[in-house]
Amino acid sequence: MHMDEFDVNSLQSVFFVESLKTGDKLDFARSVVNATRGIFDGDPMILPLPEEQEQAPPDVPYIVLKSKNNWYRCNICGNRIDLFFKRGKDIGQNISELWPDYKNIIKDFSNYIKETLNEKIWRLGFVATFVKDVGRSVNEILNGAYLQPNIFEDSHEIQLNILKKINFKSFNINRWIKFRPLRIKEDLSQDFGMSIEIDINTIAEKVYDFDKEEIMEFFNFAHENIVIEVPKYILIKS
User: Which domain holds residue 28?
Assistant: First the structure.
């Protein structure tokens, strides 16, 4: 099984910072737009904060940027910046088609955070979700391929979450692979859609100070692990 046989449902890149100071939020939003090839061409959403920015919940976004076609979104919080990609259901693309452009946007973000903002990035994360109509019950596939035969026979919902600890260069990394079935609203008995979420992140227990090269090393590693290693664990027989 190759990951290109799955459509990308969403991509998310996370840059954890210590304490982001934006100053004038509208000016800050404009600077992000200018630094990221103008992909956030929709109207920015600026959310109100307490007079002292330090009093705001650090993980609640107070600047939200979007593209007009809603494919891209950026959430800016006090302690993290999230870059999201999500296509409409009627537009299917695989990871090989999407990755070159998406990687360039990640590079723009890392350059902006490190050079313009001069912020310390102490943790990184990448989450990719894939979907595929496999033509038969995903519960049956998960039960038969991964679990003891017939132990959960006739189960309505099986979800599997598998964590692996990985060492890559100086990075200590968590990799979650999460399998779950998808159903159509018109007939909830049909669970022919498979969702695979891969969450790759540096561990929260270790504080890094990533430079631009290390940031790209992490995201390239995450991409390569998804397309080379993860398919070994997708046990779908035709």
Answer: 19-78
184 DSSP 8-state letter: B
Q: Is residue 57 part of a domain?
A: yes
Please say which residue of 33, 49, 78 terminates a domain. Answer: 78
* Exposure of 149 in the CB half-sphere (CA atoms within 13 A): 0
Tell me if 159 sits within 8 A of 146, measured CB to CB. no
DSSP 117-139: S---EEEEEEEEEEEEE-SS-HH
109-134 residue pLDDT tens? 999 999 999 999 999 999 999 999 99
Distance (Å, rounded) from C-alpha 232 to C-alpha 60?
A: 37
Does 115 lie in the same domain as 68? no
> pTM for this one?
0.91
Same domain? 114 vs 204: yes
Q: List Cβ neighbours of 11 (8 Å cut-off, separation of 6 or more).
A: 84, 85, 86, 98, 102, 126, 127, 128, 129
